[in-house]
Amino acid sequence: MDSRTKGKTVMEVGGDGVAVITLINPPVNSLSFDVLYNLKSNYEEALSRNDVKAIVITGAKGKFSGGFDISGFGEIQKGTRKEPKVGYISIDIITDLLEAARKPSVAAIDGLALGGGLELSMACHARISTPGAQLGLPELQLGVIPGFGGTQRLPRLVGLTKALEMILTSKPVRAEEGHSLGLIDAVVPSAELLTTARRWALDIVERRKPWISSLLKTDKLPPLGEAREILKFARGQTRKQAPNMKHPLMCLDALETGIVSGPRVGLEKEAEVGSQVISLDTTKGLIHVFFSQRGTVKVPGVTDRGLMPRKIKKVAIIGGGLMGSGIATALILSSYPVILKEVNEKFLEAGIGRVKANLQSRVRKGSMSKEKFEKTMSLLKGSLDYESFRDVDMVIEAVIENISLKQQIFADLEKYCPQHCILASNTSTIDLNKIGERTKSQDRIVGAHFFSPAHVMPLLEIVRTNHTSAQVIVDLLDVGKKIKKTPVVVGNCTGFAVNRMFFPYTQAAMFLVERGADPYLIDSAVSKFGMPMGPFRLCDLVGFGVAIATATQFIENFPERTYKSMIIPLMQEDKRAGEATRKGFYLYDDKRKAKPDPELKKYIEKARSISGGNVDPKLVKLSEKEIIEMTFFPVVNEACRVFAEGIAVKAADLDIAAIMGMGFPPYRGGIMFWADSIGSKYIYSRLDEWSKTYGDFFKPCAFLAERGSKGAPLSAPVEQARSRL
Ligand SMILES: CCCCC[C@H](O)CC(=O)SCCNC(=O)CCNC(=O)[C@H](O)C(C)(C)COP(=O)(O)OP(=O)(O)OC[C@H]1O[C@@H](n2cnc3c(N)ncnc32)[C@H](O)[C@@H]1OP(=O)(O)O
């Protein structure tokens, strides 16, 4: 393959008169422009050759295609590639050349047929797949719309309701379901895929099998009035679920046009909308997230050293509380045998009970069978001592945030665990060097910071000290992948990356209410911005105990920029500690529905009198935009510090940490991406102004000041010399 081209297709014509065109673009045979243009010329050749009767399209190495090459969107957005004439691929190539050809095509689908991959196959006249095939149109997840005729052919093949479900949820279906839906014509074992597809293609030529153009099918479409009702409902749901995104509604427009005005007009509408969505900010954000998420496992100086992950056969977890039991659940769900250690029978039983409850909830929801439940639970063993730790490959400590307790545990682990065993801590804030102070095992000490509930939340912060070996990081990255987490490798400091970014967010909110802003308006503005909930609702959810413990760590370690609000401690004194006590910033009913509490004013006023601050008329009347700036610019400021200190190696890692750890809206691309979309100069100037009026909590850090003064992007790499990793 030419090093300048991205992928290709090859065509082989057999003695049976079938031309087999194979898509080749590792690792997922994505449809780059090179692949698509090659496909076009193979088709033209096949159609003009007298020895070719029919065509089979397949993908190399067990994967049909993961869809259009997503980096192509980036090239179009940056202007480094000119977008082809609107509709050139979907109409001129896929519809007019391929589907309308006088020779039939059959798609032979193994593995993946996603996005453009499935769309290409739907333009073929039949689809044969293997049992493991995944078929889906996940484009909306990327901020784009199904572009190669997907909005027109899928409803005609599987019906409007199912097509909407597949497109709006971005979830693929398996081959068998695809078969029952009419998306797939036959499911055959891998070894028979090509021969069946070839025969099927010849059968179409011989009229033994129907020659079906998906675009011309109408039998699965509901009557017009019903279709309009279905689409109206879908629009309503979409507006509710994705209020800040335009592309899902634009996609529905393309679907509706095809149903109302016919598929050709629908294709034209799809092409027009498809070209418009590429330049939406939300699309840029989502595409950035796609690549950033895959980039977190590429750690310079660690994963580029040719190290292979060691096999982790058995894991021990210390502490069966909420975190320990969640981590144990995540591990046994991915088939790791786990020992759960507690200090007494009662706690051990409770810990195992929590794991059981986590799995039982899956059984109740129907996502786990009873047999699988029993099998999974059998991987968990309880223990009250360290004797069974003699053959474990990794220990994850998940006890309360108490330094001396953790130090004792790590000293004990060093005695009982084998030399190679990884010693990990799930601490969320404590310096790992302190935790390992009483050991000589600093090279195998690492942070494995999970987020609660650990078996559900997708992020794993892997915390590396200056002593942690690269091998240990590689091992933990591998475990993270196996338990389906997105790992982000960060450096060691109080709060690591996520909590360091999180803390100023809640602090800014406390500051604003102490100066007169309405907490419920802040929560509402932040939710509208796209966070799952506002800072006050969040404090209630995590509980004030956790909030105070975290604040203590930050006050101790970053006193110069910590805003010391007394609102939470005052409420805690009155035994209102958040949702668990039914009272916090909100009041909670039996169904845990939150409602504002007029009594909150009392605590705010008292906290204000303690801090000596005054109500500021400007802050009482903040607009939603100002609320967002005053709560999130301090987060950007801290993210800049984390980046400048080398705690995160790439700004994109902070984007993923903010999205998966804080709930920052993915369509805004993550905290640094969002900041750059606003501009460093503006963010710097706002923080600078606020710091002069309201104090050092808002003071821009040196990194932000430097980049802000030049208007330089915050996400541009930091020079190596300054990076700690
Ligand atoms: C004019 C344009 C019109 C376009 C119309 C069309 O309708 C639009 C599309 O088709 S958009 C693309 C739709 N497809 C997808 O959204 C699929 C995205 N990919 C995935 O979901 C997954 O990658 C996977 C299920 C295909 C494979 O998952 P797995 O966990 O096995 O592997 P990774 O996710 O780590 O991916 C491995 C590497 O492959 C790269 N990659 C995957 N898909 C694409 C793609 N469509 N384009 C380009 N690159 C892709 C991914 O980035 C990984 O690369 P690394 O360098 O990190 O290894």
From TrEMBL:
<protein>
    <submittedName>
        <fullName>Peroxisomal fatty acid beta-oxidation multifunctional protein MFP2-like isoform X1</fullName>
    </submittedName>
</protein>
<dbReference type="InterPro" id="IPR018376">
    <property type="entry name" value="Enoyl-CoA_hyd/isom_CS"/>
</dbReference>
<dbReference type="InterPro" id="IPR001753">
    <property type="entry name" value="Enoyl-CoA_hydra/iso"/>
</dbReference>
<dbReference type="InterPro" id="IPR029045">
    <property type="entry name" value="ClpP/crotonase-like_dom_sf"/>
</dbReference>
<keyword id="KW-0576">Peroxisome</keyword>
<keyword id="KW-0812">Transmembrane</keyword>
<keyword id="KW-0472">Membrane</keyword>
<feature type="domain" description="3-hydroxyacyl-CoA dehydrogenase C-terminal">
    <location>
        <begin position="495"/>
        <end position="588"/>
    </location>
</feature>
<dbReference type="InterPro" id="IPR006176">
    <property type="entry name" value="3-OHacyl-CoA_DH_NAD-bd"/>
</dbReference>
<dbReference type="Pfam" id="PF00725">
    <property type="entry name" value="3HCDH"/>
</dbReference>
<feature type="transmembrane region" description="Helical">
    <location>
        <begin position="315"/>
        <end position="339"/>
    </location>
</feature>
<dbReference type="InterPro" id="IPR006108">
    <property type="entry name" value="3HC_DH_C"/>
</dbReference>
<dbReference type="InterPro" id="IPR008927">
    <property type="entry name" value="6-PGluconate_DH-like_C_sf"/>
</dbReference>
<keyword id="KW-0560">Oxidoreductase</keyword>
<dbReference type="Pfam" id="PF02737">
    <property type="entry name" value="3HCDH_N"/>
</dbReference>
<keyword id="KW-0413">Isomerase</keyword>
<keyword id="KW-0511">Multifunctional enzyme</keyword>
<comment type="similarity">
    <text>In the N-terminal section; belongs to the enoyl-CoA hydratase/isomerase family.</text>
</comment>
<keyword id="KW-0456">Lyase</keyword>
<feature type="domain" description="3-hydroxyacyl-CoA dehydrogenase NAD binding">
    <location>
        <begin position="314"/>
        <end position="492"/>
    </location>
</feature>
<comment type="similarity">
    <text>In the central section; belongs to the 3-hydroxyacyl-CoA dehydrogenase family.</text>
</comment>
<dbReference type="Pfam" id="PF00378">
    <property type="entry name" value="ECH_1"/>
</dbReference>
<dbReference type="InterPro" id="IPR036291">
    <property type="entry name" value="NAD(P)-bd_dom_sf"/>
</dbReference>
<keyword id="KW-0520">NAD</keyword>
<keyword id="KW-0276">Fatty acid metabolism</keyword>
<dbReference type="InterPro" id="IPR006180">
    <property type="entry name" value="3-OHacyl-CoA_DH_CS"/>
</dbReference>
<keyword id="KW-1133">Transmembrane helix</keyword>
<comment type="pathway">
    <text>Lipid metabolism; fatty acid beta-oxidation.</text>
</comment>
<keyword id="KW-0443">Lipid metabolism</keyword>
